[in-house]
Design goal:
The structure holds two protein chains of two kinds.
Chain A lengths: L3 H26 L4 E2 L3 E6 L12 E10 L6 E7 H12 L10 H26 L3 E3 L3 E5 L1 H10 L8 E11 L4 E8 L2 H14 L2
Antiparallel strand pairs in A: 1-7, 2-7, 3-4, 3-5, 3-6, 4-8, 7-8
Helix pairs in contact in A: 1-3, 1-5, 2-3
Chain B lengths: L6 E4 L3 E6 L3 E7 L4 E7 L15 H14 L7 E7 L13 H15 L3 E7 L5 E6 L5 E6 L4 E3 L1
Parallel strand pairs in B: 5-6
Antiparallel strand pairs in B: 1-4, 2-7, 3-4, 3-5, 7-8, 8-9
Helix pairs in contact in B: 1-2
C-alpha cells in the first residue's frame, strides 16, 4: 500500500506539521514540548486494536477540508489524566483528583483547534495548497470505538487496510502526553502522495 | 481478541474492544455451552466473500454454519448483540452507520430464525465486550465511564 519512499515522504510531511503543532502547545503552556519521531503504519482493520486502545481518553477530531478531496481526519488524543494536567497548567490550577468538566472541554477544543490548525497549515504550506480543519468534534470515550466509527463511515468506503500516522508530543514539566493522529482515506492519501512526489522531482 | 471484521468460535472467553458503530454479534449454543463472536463493521457484504465476519448478512450465516458444523443444533442457538452506537453528532458524511448495522443484524437473525437473547445497542458510547461461552453464555459490556453490565 505504501513504498518505503512514500512512507518516508509522508513521515517528513507529518513531522513538519507536528513540529508546528508542538510549537503552539509550547507557547500556550510556556514550557518545552518534546516530540517523538512519527510512525507511519499500514494497518489491517482487524489489527487496529494493536495501535489504538479502549482506555478512555479525550479525542478532538477534525475532518480535513480545503484543496484536497474530503475524507481525511486529524485526531488529537489526550489520556484523561493528561487532560486534567493540561487544563490545570493552562488555568493555573492544581487539583488533580477531579472529574472532567465544561472547563476541560473548552480547553480541549481550544487547544485542539490551535494545534491542528498549525499542523495542517504547515503541512499544506509544504504542499503549496490550503488545508483547513472542520469544526471539531470532542469525544471522551474509547479511542478504538472512535477510530472504528470513522473507518466504517462512508468516507472510507469498504476498506481492509488503513494508513495511520501517529506522533507523540509530551511535556515533562507538566507530565502531559498527547498523540496526533492523521487518518487519510484512500483518495486523500493518493493526492498527498502525488503532491509529495512532484515536490521531490 | 476479535478485531474488526474478524470472528472466533470456541468455549474460552473471547472479546472485542472499543465497539463504536460496529456490532459484536454473539451466537451462543445453550446446550453445548459454546459459541462464536463476530466483529461486524458494515451492514451489507454486497456479494463480497473475503471477510464474512465483517458484514451483518454474511456474519450471521458464518456463525450459524460454523456452529452447525461443530455439532450445534439450530434450535439451541440464540444471539446477543452489542454496539451500533453513533459517536459523532456533528460530522457530515453518513456517520449513522451504527443504526444501519443494528437493523441489518436484527433482520438477518430473524431470517435465520435466531432468537435475540439479549442486546445492548445504540446510544453514543463505545463498548468493550467479553463473551464467556462456558459460563452460560454470559456477556460483559464495559463502557468508558467504567460501568460493567452483564447481559
Amino acid at each position: 500500500m505504501l513504498t518505503t519512499q512514500q512512507s518516508d515522504a509522508l513521515r517528513e510531511l507529518g513531522n513538519i506539521g507536528a513540529a508546528h503543532a508542538a510549537t503552539t502547545l509550547s507557547t500556550m503552556l510556556s514550557t518545552n514540548i518534546g516530540m517523538e519521531v512519527p510512525e507511519i503504519n499500514v494497518v489491517d482493520i482487524a489489527k487496529v486494536h494493536e495501535y489504538v486502545s479502549d482506555e478512555p481518553a479525550a479525542l478532538v477530531i477534525f475532518q480535513i477540508q480545503g484543496e484536497v478531496s474530503g475524507g481525511g481526519y486529524v485526531l488529537l488524543h489526550i489520556p484523561k489524566t493528561s487532560v486534567v494536567r493540561l487544563t490545570n497548567a493552562m488555568l493555573g490550577m492544581t487539583e488533580l483528583d477531579r472529574d472532567l468538566t465544561e472547563m476541560d472541554h473548552s480547553a480541549l477544543l481550544e487547544i485542539g483547534n490551535i494545534m491542528v490548525s498549525a499542523f495542517l497549515d504547515a503541512s499544506a504550506t509544504l504542499l503549496s495548497i490550503i488545508m483547513l480543519p472542520s469544526p471539531p468534534s470532542l469525544i471522551i470515550d474509547m479511542p478504538h470505538a472512535a477510530f472504528q466509527s470513522i473507518l466504517a463511515a462512508q468516507d472510507f468506503s469498504d476498506i481492509n487496510q488503513v494508513v495511520i500516522f501517529r506522533t507523540e508530543l509530551h511535556s515533562d514539566q507538566y507530565k502531559i502526553t498527547s498523540n496526533l493522529f492523521l487518518l487519510p482515506n484512500q483518495p486523500m492519501l493518493n493526492e498527498i502522495l502525488a503532491m509529495l512526489e512532484n515536490l521531490m522531482k | 481478541m476479535v478485531g474488526i471484521g474478524d470472528y472466533h468460535i470456541g468455549r474460552s472467553p473471547m472479546s472485542s474492544i472499543g465497539l463504536g458503530s460496529c456490532i459484536g454479534l454473539v451466537v451462543y449454543d445453550m446446550e453445548r455451552d459454546t459459541g462464536g463472536l463476530a466483529h461486524i463493521m458494515l451492514p451489507d457484504s454486497q456479494g463480497r466473500t473475503d471477510r464474512p465476519a465483517k458484514y451483518a448478512d454474511t456474519a450471521v450465516e458464518l456463525l450459524v454454519r460454523e456452529l452447525n458444523k461443530q455439532g450445534s443444533k439450530k434450535e439451541a442457538l440464540g444471539a446477543k448483540i452489542v454496539g451500533g452506537s453513533s459517536m459523532f453528532q456533528s460530522f457530515s458524511g453518513n456517520l449513522n452507520i451504527g443504526d444501519r448495522n443494528i437493523e441489518a443484524v436484527r433482520f438477518h437473525l430473524k431470517k435465520w430464525n435466531l432468537r435475540i437473547l439479549a442486546e445492548d445497542v445504540g446510544g453514543v458510547q463505545g463498548r468493550t465486550i467479553t463473551f464467556y461461552p462456558a459460563e452460560k453464555g454470559k456477556v460483559s459490556v464495559k463502557t468508558a465511564d467504567g460501568t460493567i453490565r452483564l447481559i
